[in-house]
Amino acid sequence: MKQSDGEPSAAIAARVERAFLIQQERQGQTNNLLSTKEIDKHCKPDAAGEQLLRNAMTRLNWSARGYHRVLKVARTIADLAGVSSVEQMHIAEAIQYRRGLKER
Fold first, then answer.
1. How far is residue 10's CA from residue 61's CA, in Å, rounded to a whole number?
2. pTM for this one?
3. What does the DSSP 8-state code read for residue 5?
4. Rounded to whole angstroms, how far apart are CA atoms 98 and 70?
5. What would the pLDDT profile of 44-102 be if each residue is shown by its tens digit?
6. Which residues, in sequence order, are CB contacts of 82 under 8 Å at separation 6+?
7. Whole-angstrom Cα distance, residue 32 to residue 61?
8. What are the two backbone dihedrals, phi and then psi, of residue 30, each rounded to the nearest 5 degrees?
């Protein structure tokens, strides 16, 4: 069986470790443990990301809890990418993950 041409496990592990360290330095805990106040402080998306998330929230009838969950996932995606700000593309990816979980 031929292995895929994907990223090596060691590279993925290193990226995850960097993201973990970024989260610890920025807020002293991982993103999944953030309170609502901390989400507002550390996970604020850019204007386009905010608009995309608000539209998805309305269209998909999400609660405030769902909104905050998407923000935490988007923050993690940005951390994995090594980007300091949460951008529209991070929000879009997080929305897709949430929609995929809901459809199961």
1. 39
2. 0.89
3. S
4. 7
5. 999 999 999 999 999 999 999 999 999 999 999 999 999 999 999 999 999 999 876 65
6. 15, 18, 22
7. 22
8. -80, 160
